[in-house]
Amino acid sequence: MRLHVCLRPADPEWASYTLGVFVCHSCSGLHRNIAHISKVKSLLLDPWSCSELEVRTCRLDQWIRAKYERKEFMYVERQEPYSAGYREGFLWKRGRDNGQYLSRKFILSEREGVLKYFNKNDAREPKATMKISSLNATFQPGKMGTAHGLQITYLKDNSTRNIFVYHEDGKEMVDWFNAIRAARFHFLQVAFPGAPESELLPKLTRNYIKEGYMEKTGPKQTEGFRKRWFTMDDRRLLYFKDPLDAYARGEVFIGSQENRYSVLAGLPPNTQGSHWPFGITIATPDRKFVFACETEEDQRGWMSAFQMVVSRPMLPQDFAVEAYFKHKP
């Protein structure tokens, strides 16, 4: 697509919250046709969350520098070796227990199929090893409180593990992000031979569908409601005591409506103990999950996110995840 910048009105009514650009009504239609790259919303009619309003400044700034300052798009030899298959360096990593950021050595190796980090520079064994097959990375400067903060997630014993890292140099952090995406791309090319690039690109890394606070109660719906931080990551709804916790307190799988999953506004009859008045009930084939939102706007936002998930047909790999959730200890 040759249209890089919308030059129509001075007061556009649409914006791409994944690219961080404003567009006119005509260009918004073009962006909807490339939904795997750009997602648009109306500035006047659609609700916006804080995470959507937060422009991906680090990525956008480095894209501009790569194009106009380093001229990487004009001179191939100036392009960074994102797809070299190996990257090594030091990043500031948040401690799991104390929350302190300490310098840690990271190695990304496509040959080994892993991203790993070491607590000591001369350590022979890594502190953690993350398989590229389940790796995800998304910029989270607002949540982390650092300008170039990156949240890395992977599956450990089929549960989600969070790692929060940053670097003072925005270019270094974006280079790591692109290296992870390149490694994911090469992995997916092997995992799905013959699949077109257009199908693989959305799978490289993903932003969360929605994040924020809700209250939750237990399976009997007689326990007290507790405030938790929730993250909707594809079909996994994770909840944490703190947004920067390494591990979730729990995870909920949300399937499709064809497989008897549904989302309803409100709380079941006789539900007590919620401090917030705007309820949401997620019904699964096995049980109901009950949540409460502080405001009606929050409720609408979460309802929209959940409805988007249940209205999407399940893929073969989704059934495998669902089976694990049903039989996990």
TrEMBL record:
Keywords: Cytoplasm, GTPase activation, Metal-binding, Repeat, Zinc, Zinc-finger. GO terms for cellular component: cytoplasm; plasma membrane. Pfam families: ArfGap (PF01412), PH (PF00169). InterPro entries: Arf-GAP_dual-PH_domain, ARFGAP/RecO, ArfGAP_dom, ArfGAP_dom_sf, PH-like_dom_sf, PH1_ADAP, PH2_ADAP, PH_domain. Residues 6-54 form the Arf-GAP domain. One of its GO terms (molecular function) is GTPase activator activity. It is found in: Cytoplasm. Residues 84-185, 207-311 form the PH domain. This is ArfGAP with dual PH domains 1. It comes from Amphiprion ocellaris. The gene is ADAP1.
